[in-house]
Design a protein that fits this description.
This protein is mainly alpha-helical and 385 residues long. It folds into three domains: 1-114, no CATH class; 115-234; 235-336 and 378-385, Butyryl-CoA Dehydrogenase, subunit A, domain 3 (Up-down Bundle). It contains 15 helices and two strands. It has helices at 2-12, 19-35, 52-60, 67-79, 98-111, 116-139, 145-171, 175-198, 206-233, 237-269, 271-296, 300-327, 335-345, 350-363, 368-384, and strands at 39-40, 46-47. Strands 1-2 form a two-stranded antiparallel ribbon. A hairpin with a 5-residue loop joins strand 1 and strand 2 (46-47). Helix 7 (145-171) runs antiparallel to helix 8, helix 7 (145-171) runs parallel beside helix 9 (206-233) and helix 10 (237-269) packs parallel to helix 12. Mean pLDDT is 76; it is low at 38-51, 73-84 and 341-385.
């Protein structure tokens, strides 16, 4: 026990604040100072009012009330010069620094997520992180039954929390945010479904068990997203148009973000993974263009759906590139088999079929060359979904 603690302390000494954590912490404190300037009474005593922002901050700090978490934060802070463990970010279940990763780093990031939408996006990322850990361990032949059980429990916990957040947003009438949550989760799960499919023969069937559960959650996310998108489309025209215009900006930002990511990771990802990612981004661009056309035609509900589809395609490209780097797995050889299986087990939902029909109808109005090019892109999108 003593040796393990000393090993932990040695590694903790090497921890430093990442640039992202420094920036977010600085922003957090600056915002609070601007919103809550010190006030003085006549007798010169300080008076600080508690704003809703401060109350949310305190509520998000509740993980520090746990004795072990407080100790962990104290150790990392004192011994590492005030850093949240950057080294722990690469830790896997069973590693010495893994508790720091999930109980300190991730809790700290959750503390900075104030809105329900931000909390949900972080939960989507946590879901991907748990699956990523399972994939790395499986690729190394170290995905034991105990680890698999822990990953499964965390996976269920994250997805359940996402469902609760989405339900609360829907109850408050914010269906657009709920649709975005379901869409983001669906994209993350589909990417990891493909990676796990390539690893399904590993770990004595334990990868297969996780894969089955991921497929179930993918279908649930897709169905929930379809329902939410239908509710958005049924709103008043002005509301739907506003939602579609907002989603257009989000889709453009997502595609730009993924293009930048792939450009930086191209050398590490390899030719096959990069080519696949670029093809997906081209499909995302095509879908975005179709959405713009529908928006200009005042078909705002269809535009909203297409913009979400473009974001999912781009996000899948990013996740697959990251996966190919993390486990050094060439997914290209598994594409045809896994996509065929995906089509058989998860046929497109009714909403998606309708959108593709609209795209095909619109393409018929273009030139022969454009129709041929669009046809190839449309086929690719249909297979991937």
């Amino acid at each position: 026990m003593k040796d393990n603690f000393e090993q932990f302390i040695r590694k903790a000494r090497q921890v430093r604040f990442s640039q992202e954590d420094k920036a977010r912490t600085h922003e957090l404190l600056s915002r609070y100072m601007r919103m809550n300037p010190a006030r003085f009474r006549a007798e010169g005593r300080h008076q600080v009012q508690r704003s809703p922002f401060f109350q949310e901050f305190i509520k998000n700090c509740k993980f520090l009330y746990k004795p072990m978490m407080a100790l962990a934060v104290l150790v990392v802070t004192v011994m590492a010069g005030g850093g949240v463990s950057l080294a722990a970010e690469n830790a896997l279940p069973g590693d010495v620094l893994y508790p720091v990763k999930v109980e300190v780093n991730e809790e700290f990031r959750a503390m900075l997520a104030f809105s329900q939408e931000a909390k949900a996006e972080w939960k989507v990322q946590q879901t991907g992180r748990r699956l990523q850990e399972a994939e790395k361990l499986a690729a190394k032949g170290e995905f034991g039954s105990e680890t698999a059980a822990k990953v499964d429990a965390k996976f269920e916990q994250h997805t359940q929390k996402l469902s609760e957040i989405a339900s609360k947003l829907e109850a408050k009438g914010n269906v657009e945010a709920a649709a975005a949550i379901h869409s983001s989760l669906e994209a993350t799960l589909e990417a990891h479904e493909r990676i796990l499919g390539a690893l399904r023969g590993e770990a004595d069937g334990r990868v297969e068990e996780i894969l089955v559960k991921v497929k179930v959650k993918t279908r649930e996310a897709r169905e929930a997203r379809d329902r939410a998108e239908a509710e958005v489309s049924a709103k008043a025209h002005t509301e739907v148009k506003e939602a579609a215009e907002g989603k257009l900006g989000a889709a453009q930002n997502k595609i730009a973000e993924v293009k930048s990511f792939i450009a930086k990771m191209e050398a590490r990802a390899g030719a096959a993974a990069t080519a696949d990612a670029k093809a997906r981004l081209e499909a995302a661009d095509n879908t975005l263009a179709q959405g713009k056309t529908r928006l200009e035609a005042d078909a705002c509900g269809e535009a909203f759906v297409l913009f979400q589809q473009a974001m999912r395609t781009a996000q899948e490209a990013k996740s697959l590139v990251q996966g190919s780097i993390d486990i050094e797995l060439d997914l290209d050889d598994e594409d045809e088999e896994n996509e065929q299986e995906l089509e058989e087990e998860h046929p497109p939902a009714d909403g998606e079929i309708e959108v593709e029909t609209e795209i095909e109808t619109e393409v018929e109005l273009e030139t022969d060359n454009e129709r041929e090019e669009r046809g190839r892109s449309g086929t690719q999108i249909e297979v991937e979904l």
